[in-house]
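Now for today's protein.

===
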Amino acid sequence: MQFGYGSAALLLAACCLCTAGHACKTIEQRFKFGNSDVYLRLRRGDKLQYELMKGSSLLQTVTLDNFVTSSNLEATSTGGFRLSDGSTTIEFSLVLSSSSVTHVRVVRDQVVKGTQPRDCVRLNKGRVHWFGGSEQKQHYWPVERQQYSNFSYVPKELGNMGVAERYWLNSEGFFLFVDNTTPLFIDQNAAGLEDQLCISAFSALPYDRWLSSSKFSYYLGFAKDAKAAHMYAVKTLLGKPIGYPDERMVQHPVWSTWALYKAEVSDAVVRDFAKQILDNGFENSQLEIDDDWEDCYGALTFRKGKFPDAKKLTDDLKALGFRVTLWIHPFINNNCTTIYKTAKDLGYLVVNQAGSADTQWWNSKPKDAAYLDFTKPAVQEWFSTRLKRLQAEDGIDSFKFDAGETSWVPTDPVLQGDANQTPLQITTDYVRTVAAFGDMVEVRSGQGTQDLPIFVRIVDKDSEWGWNNGLVTLITSLLQMNMNGYPFVLPDMIGGNGYNKKPPTKELFLRWLQANVFMPSLQFSFVPWNFDIETVEISKTFTKMHSDYTPYIMKMFKRATETGEPVNAPLWWIAPEDIVAQSIYDEFLLGDDIIAAPVIVENARNRDIYLPKGEWTDGNTGTVYKGPIWLMEYSAPLDTLPHFVRVGFKLE
């Protein structure tokens, strides 16, 4: 056995558990990090495990799958420990040990090409709840129910993974954060790995498969509860925004042409849409012209046949009180011949290892489009200059930036910068490029961009009720994004997108609107007046309610920039040790003072509501409740949004 040296403490204990005629099942080695009370314990059995302990308390057990060694831990000169299997070395280092937080880093110096080390933690479903992870189409909350098998962990179209931060948090105050330089694959509840979350590093697509070795680096954090752990992660790893989005986008609805008109937009359609909004007595923050306004996809010029005088249109809309925004994407279709040739000749398109730029997105056929290479500064400048022309010449106020995920690049892309950041870098660079257009910007993807003062839109939802990208997942996506450090969430269209020629029903539309009220912004495309007068009146009630709470929402925006706290947190945020609150998926907070409990089940006219500790005033009846308490079968007809405010709270 190797004993520690330098600032590391000596081996404290070792034991071998054997039975007659059988090999030892477990050997323990226990090492101490320097002068701290944090220990690393190595267990040998069917699989190698390490345990992190603080004093006599077990913090976490990690199974080292695909890692076999007879070597012992060796102390490093920096106070950590290393373990080698002959080709790869794992180094454990203590980042911080205090009375409130323990923070450990685990690094493999190199992962040899063709190998896939996998480190696993127990989910302990039924006892422990997990939060964070990626945005998902079928988005459960808490996230321990999700299933993945050797799943590449990057922002991608599959599963609506617009935001896929490498961060997980559990109800016991543990977090796991994986570096962006790791070619990360995950397994969760996979065959043979049931009730486990496993992270692995593998130099395979969609990552750079040409590297001779890759990195595998992650952090483990421990605090007294999930809130304390998350706030430490925000401070040290996730970051907080440097500013916040436009207040008018919070106070009044965004009106988009997309869900209602799809690609059937024109000067006449937009003018009529604006007239309908005003004639029906609704306020606006802006009118967003969505798909199919361009000459061709990627031209960034208005099609004269649809928009004969874009500047006249925007001038007229502004005279009516509208700001005008425009849908933008990072692609150029091949039939957009002039601009495509220019971009190709300049080397501005993402190409694969064979030099081909051919790719596909939802408005192209296979191999009929290209993705602009935002990892090149020249592309960032060229793209931005063309957008500024739209602002200067056509009167556009700002933009809705779509896509940005890594999966749109050609297979096996050649990107600029650190190869260990492929393909994540293109998402980061695209989002950072477009964020420069100011506080009215919205994006739908992100990668390490929590610092940006812009809205991040939830990826398109379907006009459905259930877990498969329906209304319930609007709330779970909201919570996931907030717990990944993105507090400025722009919910998707009220009522969903109406795909497959299936628009929302009146009931779904109104319940969706109610669910949006205590989120940061309202975004209409389907319109209340296409249903009936009752829908219009109920919609006005809730758009006014949202507007009334704007000062508080903006106060929470400001708080997010100061502390990094979420704007819309899960219910357990104000009661971290409440095991009931930890499991709630259909309620959420606005700040620390408002609980929203919208009805998200079809045909329901009541629901059960959980209130955590504190005194809460019913926003509908004025009744005061002392939590923790369940309110069973709370009455909620179609014109009622169950919500509660902390006793003593007053709107400014």
Observations:
- Residues 1-23 have pLDDT under 50 and may be disordered.
- The longest strand covers residues 606-618.
- The two ends are 66 Å apart (CA to CA).
- The chain has twelve helices and 34 strands.
